[in-house]
Automatic annotation (TrEMBL):
Pfam families: DUF1801, OmdA. It comes from the Bacteria. Signal peptide: none annotated. This is YdeI/OmpD-associated family protein. Residues 19-110 form the YdhG-like domain. Transmembrane segments: none annotated.
Length: 198
């Protein structure tokens, strides 16, 4: 059993109502999964099994939360959660499933890790192709170095310039941004060059 003293401190620093909830879940996880390891991630207690995320705990001002990393596969439910995790807002230990149910869910989460099962992530759809507006194309025609830098940039850096120009509300502002973009690009600068560390 690997216990992390930072989790002891987290539980001790939680609101009084949350301490028994956090301690109870922690004890159940250790009982159900003797090989579990504790750590702090994102400033919250997390439990690892075979180096993979098993579950996490959180304590807030008026409720606590507990959830499995692969929650949609572990706690199959149609109920909409009212807090992070799969069990909604936890205000007392009684808000948790009974110990036998929770232990079975812990075992199910472990089996998913053992089987290499992962939650399917939604596909990311490609953003539409970038189109250079006519006023910027004119500036590029007058400043070939700007066009060369722009062409060498990855799509995300190109989009930063195009979005910045498109966001201008007044024609004067847009014209100034096009001119600035041409100048900065000719100098090889990215859109947010002023904020980059040297």
């Amino acid at each position: 059993m690997t216990r992390d003293p930072r989790i002891d401190a987290y539980i001790d620093g939680a609101q009084p109502f949350a301490r028994p909830i956090l301690a109870h879940v922690r004890a159940l996880i250790h009982a159900a999964c003797p090989a579990v390891e504790e750590t702090i991630k994102w400033s919250r207690p997390h439990f690892l099994y075979r180096g993979k995320q098993l579950a996490g705990l959180s304590a807030f001002k008026s409720h606590a939360a507990f959830g499995f990393w692969q929650g949609s596969l572990v706690a199959e439910t149609d109920a909409a959660p009212t807090a992070m995790g799969q069990f909604g807002r936890l205000e007392t230990v009684a808000d948790l499933p009974d110990d036998a149910t929770l232990t079975a869910l812990i075992h199910k989460a472990m089996a998913l890790i053992d089987g290499g099962v992962k939650v399917a992530r939604p596909l990311k759809h490609a953003k539409p192709p970038l189109e250079v507006p006519p006023d910027l194309a004119e500036a590029f025609a007058a400043t070939p170095a700007a066009q060369a830098t722009y062409d060498a940039f990855p799509p995300s850096q190109r989009r930063e310039y195009l979005d910045w120009i498109a966001e201008a509300k007044r024609s004067e502002t847009r014209a100034r941004r096009v001119a600035d973009a041409a100048t900065w690009l000719a100098e090889g600068k990215r859109r947010n060059w002023k904020y980059e560390q040297c």
